[in-house]
Amino acid sequence: MSISQFLALSGGVFLLISTLVLLIICLFFLVECAAALLPIASWHHTHQWQDTQVTVLVPAHNEEVVIRSTLEKLIPALKAQDRLIVIADNCSDATAEIARSVGATVIERHDSICKGKGYALDYGLQFIESEPPDVVVIIDADCTVYPGAIAQLSECAIATNRPVQATYLMLRQKNSQSSKDLVSQFSIIIKNLVRPLGSTRLGMPCLLYGTGMAFPWSVIRSVNLASGHIVEDLKLGLDLAIAGHKPLFCPEAKVTGYLPQQLQAAKTQRTRWEHGHLQIMQTYVPRLLQQAVSQKRLDLLVSALDLCVPPLSLLVMIWSVLMTCSLLLGVLTGVWIPVIIVICSGLCVLMSIYIAWSKFAYQDLPLHELLTIPVYIFWKIPVYFNFLVQPQSLWIRTERDKIS
Which of 346, 374, 381, 403 is the Cys-Cys partner for 69 at CB 3.0 to 4.6 Å? Predict the structure, then answer.
């Protein structure tokens, strides 16, 4: 066998394996989206809520623009025995003063070395450790918590003794007609609503998304939150799952935020989310697979598959690259099996997108806007290119727009 024949054979085998992996991921994506259409039991046992002591932790770094609105909507949802604690983390603005003025307990943390939300949350947990609550709820400083969400999350956490994730959606600003914002909002609906809903209806754990999270006290203290990881929430959920505390999705509880209006802020936010997701994939997929075998747990295998599903734009980009390579291989060698596999993968993605749109997004996203997805992908190319060249490793705060 000549060197050129060996290289062609090696390339063909590598491409076949890559396309098979893609097909597995796309099939899993389709199963998640299809399972989201199945019925699920709701949590409405709020009789225990009145006797539960809840502490709401709000980590805040220079959030003076949005903190008042967030807290004023949170406070009416709390009972007399509950506590609202704002962790003013390395703040250089009026965040602490504003939070105190609306009635929150404020603790201030100043550490120029250990930066990030994980360290702030660990500081808050240390503060309440002497008088621990039944449930700890974590809410970001720029979010709107819908009526009943705190009660639903806390009740579910107490009833199951598991971490609980609310529906967390990012909405476009009311005056935004940007196609990019529409598609971005849709991609978050798929990631934060459709897929966790499907996992839950299959009896599997979900991932955590950073806000709208509730934890029984014994559960939250079983892991270390003091981390500067740029997606500390995702890491926390996987650490808890490995430890046996499988996060549960509570779709009735709803928390929303707004997509950044400024282009640079949007790019900063997306870079942190997606670089962090890819870094977690590299670290945790092998770990989850190893633990799935050693603990004999199917849910950890499912979590590994769930983690392997990349953001929608990246999934389409990977599909496009593999389709191009497969077509080239077919033309040069007459081997068309990878092309067939990639086509099947593409059909799975299209069916998943249609299911998600028709059930969960058709009112907000006109069908013709889906045609702008290639433009959205083009906008995301630099984000993924930067991951190959210089992946982001430090937590960078996204600039806020004032909540209206």
Answer: 403
Nearest to 160 by CA among 219, 235, 209: 219
In the chain, the largest separation of any two C-alpha atoms, in whole Å, equals 79
Q: What is the pLDDT of residue 401?
A: 53
For residue 46, the model assigns a pLDDT of: 54
> What's the pLDDT at 182?
82
Distance (Å, rounded) from C-alpha 129 to C-alpha 131? 5
81-114 pLDDT, tens per residue? 999 999 999 999 999 999 999 999 999 999 988 8
Alpha-carbon span 212 to 255, nearest angstrom: 6
Count the Cβ atoms, other than its own, within 10 Å of residue 331: 11
Please list the ranges in the chain whose pLDDT falls under 70: 1, 4-8, 40-49, 175-177, 262-270, 379, 385, 387-404
**C-beta atoms surrounding 6 within 10 Å:** 10
What's residue 112's pLDDT?
A: 86
- Contact assessment for residue 179 and residue 376, using Cβ atoms and an 8 Å cutoff: yes
Handedness of CA 327, 277, 207, 67 (dihedral sign): negative
209-103-404-208 Cα dihedral, nearest 10 degrees: 0
How high is the pLDDT of residue 394? 58
